[in-house]
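hey m, so remember when u said the tokens were messed up on ur end? i reran from scratch. heres the input so u can diff it against urs
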Amino acid sequence: MRLSAWLPFAVLSALAVCGAATRPHYGGTLRVEMRAAPAALDAAAADAAPLRSLVFETLVRIDAAAAADAPQPCLAVSWQHDAAAKRWQFNLRPGVKLHDGSPLTAAAVAASLQAALPGMTITAAGDAAIAIHANRPLPDLLLDLAHNGWLDTGPFRPAAFEPGRRVTFTANEDYWGGRPFLDAIEVQFGRGLRDQLADLELGKADVVEVGPTDLRRASGNSRSVWSSTAVSLVALAFAPDHAGDSRLREALALSIDRAAMHTVLLQKQGEPTAALLPQWMSGYAFAFPTAPDLPRARALANTLPPAARTLTLTYDSSMRAARSLAER
């Protein structure tokens, strides 16, 4: 039995993000703060993920607004495959340039993908297409390509980078999708949530990450708040060597008021669920009831000897909402 509360995640693609409301205008610099402190602008680094789409792009992208998160064209404008989905061809977008000014070539794309997707044969098919072959069907290839083979063709170029401290991005004047709205984006790393919110209120930052418990405060003064699809799982997990009796675990699960946690403690951010995965991801979370059943919980607890009715609960103190959830 697990308690799952799905929370929003980070800046620019994510955790509740709050920006000061200003009149739109072209140009200017956007000041962003985030908790992560990446040591390198590596597309494969997890802590650099919020910044990845500013600099890097893939052949296809996932459009969360489309049905079933359908893959959409990006550096590839079209694709086709054989009936067995073992042989694919991707036709590249014309006129794309890398950040060093050189044109994007099929050979460069093939080399990037071959390193990211071992076990497949990836070759240039002329100057404007690549071919991917495998000895097995590749029905999920488009999803793999949306997360692999990153190339530095994005709308912004890194102009100055201090590992773990800050980075400045400037507009890519040669971007295939047109020049970005902003002239530059300055990102400060390693800022705690309280410091970020304070800087926002003092006018020192334009976009910050906001924890669920600070949503009301962050939403004041006509500010806008955005949140991503839930990506973080908060679960009650039992260590194998300290799991206790299964009846105790079930009684505890039946005692948890997920709706109250979701509404009060998490400010309606995320999705309460009794399943390991949420409904939008698994399709079967509805089969696990989330409403507490205190009579059933008491009945189970009463079948246990007094010594077996105790468990020690610990939580991650780095997560601001963890203590409140644990106490609840």
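this time it looks ok to me. DSSP finds ten helices and 16 strands in the chain. if urs says something different then somethings off w ur setup not the seq
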